[in-house]
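Input.
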Amino acid sequence: MAYNGHLLHRDQRMLRGALTVASDYTFEPLDAHTVQVLGGSAPYRVTAHPEWAEAPTCSCPDFAQRGGRLYCKHIVAVLMRDERLRCQLLEMFL
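Output.
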């Protein structure tokens, strides 16, 4: 039961962070698949493919610490903001 509570807490924290990023940060497209996210401690690059050619990636330390297996708040914010990418949010819950 504690393990499930930990997951719920982590997911809630992630979603709160992503909502803050989505509403307060600036997003600059760099190319067709890459967005620079500005507004935190450093600019980070998020890459996401609408056709799911590859899993989304981010240059932030949180994403690197997770071994690229779990989405960071920057990836979630980019997926939420882009209608073509929103369906990829399902990956978070599977």
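Residues 2-93 form one domain.
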